[in-house]
Amino acid sequence: MSEIETFEEEDFQTRFSGKTFRRILALTAPHWKWVVGFLTTIMLVSVLDAFFTYLGKQIIDVGIAGKDISALLRIFYLYGGLTIIQSVMVFLFIYLAGILGERVRYDLRRNMFNHLQDLSLSYYSKTPVGWIMSRVTSDSDRVAELVTWGLVDTTWAVMNITTSLVFMFIIQWQLALIVLVLVPILVYIAIQFRKRILHSYRTVRKLNSKITGSFNENITGVRVVKSLGRESENLAEFSHITGEMYKASYRAAWLSALFLPTVQIVSAIAISAVVWYTGGNFTSSAMTIGGIQAFITYITFMMWPVQDLARVYAEIQLSIASAERIFSLVDAIPEILDRENAFDPGKLTGDIQFDHVSFSYDDGSPVLKDFSLSVKRGETIALVGPTGGGKTTIVNLLCRFYEPTSGSIKIGGCDYRDYSLYAIQSRIGVVLQTPHLFSGTIAENIRYGRLNATRDEVESAARMAGAADFITKFPRGFDEPVGEGGNMLSVGQKQLISLARAILAQPEIFVMDEATSSVDTLTEAQIQKGMEIMMNGRTSFIVAHRLSTIKKADRILVIENGAIAEIGTHAELLKKGGKYHNLYTRQFRNQMTEAYNPLSGQAATSN
Ligand SMILES: Nc1ncnc2c1ncn2[C@@H]1O[C@H](COP(=O)(O)OP(=O)(O)OP(=O)(O)O)[C@@H](O)[C@H]1O
User: Where is the ABC transporter domain (predicted)?
Assistant: First the structure.
């Protein structure tokens, strides 16, 4: 529930931000030719629309009332010719606006994707995936809509109002002045309505996501709900939210229903003014019949764009809110960046030194405190200890996913911040605790870190990792799809594929965060074998949960409260009879109990 409450839809943007609006418009700058194209065509369409009404007046006044057949024919030909031109223009502006929208959407998504790849892990731990996905999908759609259909509607509406007024002034300027007074009134009414309608819909959407969240929590947590007898309280909470949603929806429906009749009443007032004025002056032939007819058409012609402008105005506000969220993403500065003059040392095979490293995540409480460690080239370091002790944090720092708050990490005698991020991260092979595979086949996943690897190399890496046995059992073998995030495979299988991926990439430093969830003994032995191949001749850091896997490590560090509590080889630490000895004997005892009595409960797989 907390995530739903914290990251529910942001509030409706009521403030018009010119700066953001200009930045949105700037998105069209690289595609200015398309913008000019569709704006010109839409203007022509609108001018032609107004001119058709004028031609209608001419047909009545000159052709019909004046009984001038040849003039009537000329008008018909003109009408027909212009209709063809207008149809072409309509095709063009829809086509051009569609293309422009796609281009802007493409630019936005590409920029976001590119920037997301640069952002540091700290950004991802603070920002829910759902939030980022909404920026990439619905927000970029809304901004693209604004710069295309928003611009189309605005231009069309402004042009229609202007051309209608121009023709009205041509026909009868005094009457046009009366209508002119009504325009701002209508604009004001329309904007007020639109704002309120959108606000209500926004509330409905926010409440709707709460309702979805509530359903989700109650369904997934049904056992807890039942076991604690929370049904009636939950129903009361749920009824409260749905009641709120009912009120907001009711208000939205009521306002929507009221809006159109109001616009119609204002239009009717304008039309009555024409009828009243012309009625009083008809005898003095202030206006022809065609003129009156054209005037009334222009009024309707003008009223709809006015209410359309109000809709676009309200949508612009929504799009500005969307754009601000997108810009907040693309403006987020990665916490870890290459320093000026950062360089690539060519290899990362030197000794590694943690020199008085302290570190805290965003909340400020120190996770590592004055941590120092020298690791010789080719050494295997195992990190063990209670959960939350700081093991993963140490390897995160080594991979430079985060940087020390104080102190430094040196590789080959040089502060690793002097190296480029790419130089470090491309040379460290990491197998994560929850290994991630990408949608695609097994072979594609193994090849992920070295795209030019041959099929033979892929298969040989899988054999070395001990993954080939289970892979070849699949109907499509190496071409078997792994499903989204590798969800068609078990954790153990995913780790073996990740190991094969790391073996193929031939990194210079190897980092492995062992899976905490239990894998069967056979898979465990295979993972162990794969790890040994990786560790051979490489500086390696193994975060170990099953202590059996690290007996051969050169040094084992027991990490507790962000500091080294014990250090030594497996034999040394066992002999010492301290924390490692306790951890080891406890885990060994659990495994033995489980082996003799599998129903005795889960063995302590985490330490
Ligand atoms: N992204 C993060 N933001 C804030 N705090 C974090 C973050 N990651 C870890 N921590 C905190 O840092 C501390 C050390 O976590 P770390 O993951 O390094 O422990 P660990 O020893 O690897 O634990 P485990 O054995 O459970 O994997 C914990 O208190 C944890 O809550």
Answer: 352-586
